[in-house]
Amino acid sequence: xxxxxxxxxxxxTIRGVASAAGVSIATVSRVLNGRPDVAPDTRxxxxxxxxxxxxxxxxxxxxxxxxxxxxxxxxxxxxEAAYFGVILSGxxxxxxxxxxxxxxxPTLHQHEREVTLLDRLMRGTTDGAVLMLPExxxxxxxxxxxxxxxxxxxxxxxxxxxxxxxSAAHAAGARAATEHLLSLGHRRIGAITGPPEWIACTExxxxxxGALAAAGVxxxxxxxxxxxxxxxxVTAAAAxxxxxxxxxxxxxxxxxxxxxxxxxxxxxxxxxxVPEDLSVVGFDDSELAEIVAPTLTTVRQPLAEMGxxxxxxxxxxxxxxxxxxxxxxxxxxxxxxxxxxPLHVAR
Amino acid sequence: xxxxxxxxxxxxTIRGVASAAGVSIATVSRVLNGRPDVAPDTRxxxxxxxxxxxxxxxxxxxxxxxxxxxxxxxxxxxxEAAYFGVILSGxxxxxxxxxxxxxxxPTLHQHEREVTLLDRLMRGTTDGAVLMLPExxxxxxxxxxxxxxxxxxxxxxxxxxxxxxxSAAHAAGARAATEHLLSLGHRRIGAITGPPEWIACTExxxxxxGALAAAGVxxxxxxxxxxxxxxxxVTAAAAxxxxxxxxxxxxxxxxxxxxxxxxxxxxxxxxxxVPEDLSVVGFDDSELAEIVAPTLTTVRQPLAEMGxxxxxxxxxxxxxxxxxxxxxxxxxxxxxxxxxxPLHVAR
DNA sequence: GTGCATCCTGTAACCGTTTCCGGTGCTAGT
DNA sequence: ACTAGCACCGGAAACGGTTACAGGATGCAC
Lengths: 347, 347
Prior knowledge:
Two copies of one chain form a homodimer.
Chain A: H1 14-21, H2 25-32, H3 40-53, H4 59-64, E1 71-76, H5 82-97, E2 101-106, H6 111-125, E3 128-132, H7 138-145, E4 150-153, E5 165-168, H8 170-183, E6 189-193, H9 199-214, E7 224-226, H10 233-243, E8 251-254, H11 257-269, E9 279-284, E10 297-300, H12 303-318, E11 327-330, E12 333-335
Parallel strand pairs in A: 1-2, 1-3, 3-4, 4-5, 5-11, 6-7, 6-8, 8-9, 9-10
Antiparallel strand pairs in A: 10-12
Helix pairs in contact in A: 1-2, 1-3, 2-3, 5-12, 8-9, 10-11
Chain A binds a DNA duplex through helix 2 and helix 4.
């Protein structure tokens, strides 16, 4: 049964390559790591041997002896959520280019799980991490920062100064969305936020208020409802609260696309037509936006770009390069589709 | 030197624990790995030292010295696709319970990428892999199998005997979907398939034909169109082909939910009401199904379960346990929603 | 010819585990 | 009393790399 063929019993090691090339293992290692102090001929010989033996370095060994593992951890609340999937995809792509890989750690929104996961991650398995929407408090993260490099994507709460953060320009996006509605003539503009303690939400609120103020419209607290960012009963209730007002809004800015979709459904159930009777703007520009009918006007977050950015920031951190900008905000962009229309004047 | 000051003295090692407990490192290792030949007192002492020092074993070292890495690779065409996200989520959950992690490898549907990725994966980084919808041919996989344990989820093409496979019961699902339409009185039942070379599609076709045959309905080749599984122009064209037939179908079975959604849009554009004028069934039961209006009748694939199953199969493989069932098919389930209705008899 | 800097290369000491192999000390059988 | 068997534990050799350090060629200036 043991074939003479390449019955792959032994993987090529650096020592094999060394003897094949007639050099020492140190030299092979140098070549492999692109060190400059190797004679061209030698380098050539080594590379040839490497090729012939189909050698590639054992990452564990490299990691053990002080080098890097080539792995970076990514914690993410939910893998199946499209939102995170896209960020993940961007990050993974950026890493692939560096021949590095992602160790995936879904936290299921559980703080404890995230902590133990991180603990495992730092114990030699990974070189650093990207934490998406982490559960940790600023203090916890500051402590962690002492001995493990990481960058946060889309923080839940405001984080201390020194912590590297990548996020979208929430306020600007919200402002653009609101201005869009204002420019269509709407004045009673409602909002359905997400969890109010999330910084993303407070910033979007700021943008929303800012735009209203700039247009001379007094914000009406009754026009703001809270949901949980999911297309479920909580959102339906929030939508109902606004739509059933004595003087309901003519346009509503939903703080994400899920909520916008839920809102449109609730509106439809009340016989309201979107956009004729009610304009709706979402946030995220998720896959949904183009699928629902009417298609959704929404604020695009550059999710994949955020993932890529987080990775490149992290890589710089890993190389101990001076990192100038520790907090990166990526621009959002309003995408106008069918769910918004000029204010329908009286009847 | 703007180094991140490593004031974090040193991570505890097995030697530290050993000397603290007054035993040898071998003994500590034994305790850590739950070997039986350690005296209770000694074990207790070691565990105490471990606790005091906050020690946890360095996985790279463990991996190097012949043990396992605790990492398994997962190749996946696209992370952002909800379909794969859910499988991934199931797999990750199952792995988490074993204190193992996923190394994520998006292949972007590129064969070459998948090959190099796999190559890297087997060189010490991972203990095994789960390949989702792999690009490799059966022959390639058979070769790979000789020196690397893996299991395939949802194969693209039929695979050789010995390759472990987890998939959904495509034929049964398709049959259920078709029978549902038949029971509603439909007789001209169209189908929009995915890539015809995919085994999932041929099996679904089989189920579809089987159900028709059982009901005494002669399959009409004109009623079958091909799409690319995406909600795009190809799907729109396929939908148009069927809808514009002189004698168009009264019901259409779309081979996934994306296609169903595209179909519904095309139907709407032609002034057809779903389900009154056209019944639509999808496949997958993705997130979309409940969001579109009307909500989609569809065949649910147990995606998370497939992920979990793949992992448990792989783990058994890793432990060299005799694996009885190498090919696992998980049952699908028809979920009836709003997009299907009894045949609307004449006008 | 000598001294010396420069370039390249090899030796060997790690990195933190696992595990083989063998050595205690103790019990029990003869 | 002697030895076999057992339960427990320690020494030390891997595992496959990286890297500090040392040393052998060279070339060049003097």
